[in-house]
């Protein structure tokens, strides 16, 4: 459904962030995107959602296809209308607006009132907490509630693909678990998800497939269950053995060539 | 007592004019964190167009006014389209400097087009029209100024609270990137802000011109007087701009009315200073203005 082909991105014309990353998200599937800070995960999401120009970044190579059509030159508005919505890292809710106003801001591209109503009811049944706090200021919600609001707001556009950037960031473990279950539930209703996470354990537990990004390139791609077994991943991202960062990095690099062959085609 | 009420009435009317001009500043600031220094010159062009339309082309005032509004809206939109649209995501300071450039260009164009002489302002009212209530003269132009301001504020309130575009503008003001990610077309929001601000400011300018009977190329400096009003109200607060405007108007007219009774050492220009004194005082107590937003944070 979504396909990134050798996507290269630089910021301010000089700083490379992606150096030819390829990735594929089939319909109705959860794909996890792992990697350390600065690996290019957020840049990859921005490239998809059209937010690069805001950060003075530009696609300098490759292309992004959505249902076979190029979308890498389109405006963020157009991309949302086509069915891709991004939840930014750090929640980024409109804190002076009420919960309801936040949700309706998420439906700004939707013209059909019946569709807005349906999306609204769906969000309310997914997040009963939000239903209770409809008219309170979003800035006063707890961190977990704010994350739910951020996801709910994105769902108001009824996307076919949801891009989630670090939804577990700064949340308590039980809340991380709830967010994980919500992602599974959203996916069960037919929405594909691209999940960027530092919390690899959580991400791989809900994802069908995973990619590992390193300095702007995809170095590993495999079904999530296999990544969970993968020795390097266990050491490097799950912290199952301490102090072997360099070793793990080295091994990941060696796998780069093989990774291309292993890319999963739906 | 009648004298005091007369001053309050005049002060309220003047405050409404500052409020309208201030609204122009705060709408643009809210949308894009930019203080538009060309605001005064937009107002200048608008009032000149209205004056010319009435005095030279003999249009009725009620046709001339929309024409003036249209001209400034078009200037605002063109500026947004040709310049600001390329500046999205750049530091506000850069954009601020560009608005100063626009300010100079507009003022020069007015001097080139109309000359630097003082010309009479267009007015639909006879100077003495109005009626008396309990010894207070309620002039037509002042009554209209207050009425127009109230109606406009109500309309703006409805627009921001209950319409899609209003919601889009508020969301963009709070977090531009999040708004973009929701598919809000930030460019349209900027265009809307500039169009709205240009029209409202021009309306304020035309009302002010009716009050002062004549205009010259320095007329745009009126926007500077509205400046303490918006700072005092809180730069990013639309209702703050209105209340700040009224406070400034009342203070300045009341001091003007009573300063002759003060000891001679104070002099006669006190009313020009009091708005700024009030502004400094209020900022000392509330540094973000009366209604400006301290960021909401959960506790």
Structural descriptors:
heterodimer; A: 266 residues; alpha/beta; Rossmann fold; 2 domains; six-stranded mixed β-sheet; four-stranded antiparallel β-sheet; 12 helices; 41% helix; globular; B: 299 residues; mainly alpha; two-stranded antiparallel sheet; 11 helices; 70% helix; 4% strand
Give the SSE map:
The complex is a heterodimer of chains A (266) and B (299).
Chain A (H helix, E strand, L loop, with lengths): L1 E10 L3 E11 L4 E5 L6 H9 L7 E10 L2 E2 L5 H7 L1 E4 L11 H8 L6 H14 L1 H5 L10 H13 L5 E5 L7 H16 L3 E5 L3 H7 L2 E6 L2 E7 H6 L1 H6 L8 H10 L1 H7 L4
Helix pairs in contact in A: 3-6, 7-8
Chain B lengths: L1 H31 L6 H17 L5 H22 L9 H23 L4 E2 L9 E4 L2 E4 H23 L1 H11 L1 H6 L4 H27 L1 E2 L6 H12 L4 H21 L11 H16 L14
Antiparallel strand pairs in B: 1-4, 2-3
Helix pairs in contact in B: 1-5, 1-8, 1-9, 1-10, 2-3, 2-4, 2-8, 3-8, 5-6, 6-8, 9-10, 9-11, 10-11
Number of helices of chain B: 11
CATH class label of the largest domain in chain A = Alpha Beta
In order across it, which strands form the biggest sheet of chain B? 1-4
Please count the helical segments of chain A: 12
Task: Bin the helical content of chain B.
Answer: 55-70%
Biggest sheet layout of chain B: 2 strands, antiparallel
Number of strands of chain B: 4
CATH architecture classification of the largest domain in chain A: 3-Layer(aba) Sandwich
Low-confidence regions of chain A: none
Global shape of chain A: globular
Could you give the order of the helices and strands of chain B?
HHHHEEEHHHHEHHH
Q: Rg of chain A to the nearest angstrom? A: 18 Å
Keywords (chain A): Amino-acid transport, ATP-binding, Nucleotide-binding, Transport
Domain ABC transporter (chain A): 2-240
GO molecular function (chain A): ATP binding; ATP hydrolysis activity; branched-chain amino acid transmembrane transporter activity
Organism (chain A): Thermogemmatispora aurantia
